[in-house]
Predict the structure.
Amino acid sequence: MSEPSLMRREIDEAPEAVRRLLDLSGEAMRAAGDRLRRLNPPVVATIARGSSDHAATYFKYATEIVAGVPVASLGPSVVSVYGAELKLQGCAAIAVSQSGRSPDIVALAKAARAGGGETIALVNAEGSPLADTASASVALQAGPEKSVAATKSFIASVAAALCILAEWQGDDALRQGLRRLPDDLDAALECRWDEAVDAVRDAGSLYTLGRGPGFAVAAETALKFKETCIVHAEAYSGAELLHGPVSLVEGGFPVFAYVPRDAAHASLVDTANQLHQKGAMLFVAGEGAPGRRLPTAPAGHPLLEPLVMLLSFYGFAEALSRARGFNPDVPRGLKKVTETI
């Protein structure tokens, strides 16, 4: 039997990474939540690229749902290329990065702080330029991540962001769900999507689908399809899909839908029914929708369900990459740290 890939090993490390995060960075996350509570920002900005930007999107939806505070993603090029001066007095800015080294992310965080923003960095690499730039930082504690495709650092980033949100809002239900998250992630590792590997091995294009935090997971899974499996994949909100892109769906077109038990469940089931009627090859993480059900583990809070689903997807993506003849650790044309300006 061949050695497991680095990606597979790092997927398997995700539950322990979250345990370390809760144990070792608990005080830093509580302090970050206290900062936000004292600030009471009318708006929160996020600073990130790639998978980290999908983690920021997850935080955006969770914050808007729980706190009712608008969250907007800042384009790094606004500062690094166009030289804009930001006006963030009284607002907060959350920067997310695995390496904390990309020049455009660091420049944007500096500009956010210079513009009066309370900046909090979520970084896996301690002592990085981004951590040094921010008003406060939280170490993600995911440990070294050698595979190019981020997996355990993404899980830790979202968990850290949600811990800060729970402390900011004093949300005991979310706190409790986060405490049991490592065990739920352990269960997610046992949920294998092998049936889907054979079904989409030869796919050339597909859609991923979700709403709210589930849309952030749809975006992250679409990226992993592209970078590790070399499959063209596009992520859509369950609502946006019906505003044009659904026209491409015909018999046998693969769609992966994330359907957690939250307020968007009924609308996603309705969309899935429409796709099923069009003959889509529909794979569903969650219950109540037609199609081929992908096994999922339970979560301790509705906001955490998509994150638990994602870990099962990561295992599937690694297997699909190998089944298609690729090395999941070395996606073509990519490197671990992408330093853009």
Remarks:
- Residues 305-323 form the longest helix (19 residues).
- The chain has a mean pLDDT of 94.
